[in-house]
Predict the structure.
Amino acid sequence: MKRLFLTRRSFVKRSSAGLAGAALATAGTSSLYANLARNADKLAILGGTPVRSKSFSQPWPIFDDNEEKALLKALRSRNWCCLRGDAVYDFQKTFAKAMGTRECVLSNGGTTALSASLHVLGVGPGDEVITTPNTFIATINVITNMHALPVFVDIDPDTGSMNADLIEDAITEHTKVIMPVHLAGFPADIEKIMVIANKHNITVVEDACQSVFAEVNGKKLGTFGTTGCISFQEWKSLVSGEGGALLGSDEDVMRRCAAFVNNGRDPKRQKRGYPYPGSNHRMTEFQAAVLTEQFKRFLKQDALRQENGKYVEKKLCEIPGLTPRKRYAVNTRITYVEFELDYDRERLANVSASKFAEAVRAEGVPVSGGPRRYGRGCHREGMLEEHLNSGAFRAAFSKARLDKYRKSLRFPVMDDETPSDKEMLSMDSKIAFLGSRKDTDDIVEAFAKVTKNIDKLT
Ligand SMILES: Cc1ncc(COP(=O)(O)O)c(C=O)c1O
């Protein structure tokens, strides 16, 4: 593709209405436009030639001979269950070390890891667990399945994470656990949440299912709470089809978690029989064999995502109106599994984030735009009322308490009752940031092209 160097002056001249151009020029963004192609004046959404003719989609998960050999080895060993093989228990040690925690227990999913945590921490009928409505439903299912109430706090409009400043108001004598969710590789306000939890002597279970290897002040997510849970389900960044990990450093809690996923057997084999409550949530040797190989791959992928992610973020944030999504702590490591930027439409010719994203998508770069919400919120899902109406809930909670709870299910930010001007752009960068420098430059070019021509989208 032939490139045309656009000086700041020629760029301003070329911008038809000059609206976006003027704003961008004053912000000194000329470097961003230096590599724009000759045909950069006609957006693909309006019939122009896209920046990329080939989309970023490549098959996921990625595997090669290493995973195939590991799977065959497990198959031929005839030790398909972890009670006879080594892969599950070996990976537990590898992962605990990599995550900087004393212990790791593998399970057959992130959901079962969360549910084992709640069981072991004694959550049961009549209890309350404070969490966020802005999450995947599994976070809530594990609470309601214990016949406990998920007590939601509204979200921070800047991040979509649970607003830690609202937690203290939600604490009651029934609060057993606080369960923050680290969405899409971005940490929740975990340090503040830990201070509040410690002050009130409440345990924290971190749902870090989407955020493996994200960090705050050098500490990996999932290692702040009494337990932290990771998912290896196929669409995450470290995968084994299905699978999960419980992380923790409290010896007794972790012993009970290991027992819980293995029908109550003592992992230390010091107590005979089935001394602990439990069920069967074991990971198979096949999953662990794949996971072990995927983890080696993940370490390289993660390093590449970091490099490409930081590069793209720095470049794109030269565009007035695009800023990095707020981090709660200065020293925060996001994972670039999902890449998100704050979007200020006032500085982008009043074009909505969704329209901007549509134009970037037409250029061949997979981006979506809109408010910072994960659907309409778990508090609005039908499963909740089904639970509240069930015999188990009616036995565990008084009618007055359930009625009060129903009335409490309104959250101004999450429900968009006071429509927020906070919008974001979001990209499934798990794959897109595994490309070459040319690929990442294409991403930058697509954004630059749309910004340069933004007045044509109005
Ligand atoms: C926030 C969150 N919590 C829990 C889970 C459940 O993990 P799994 O699918 O491994 O059971 C997921 C999976 O998507 C998730 O995104």
Q: What stands out?
A: The CA atoms of residues 98 and 173 lie 37 Å apart. The two ends are 28 Å apart (CA to CA).
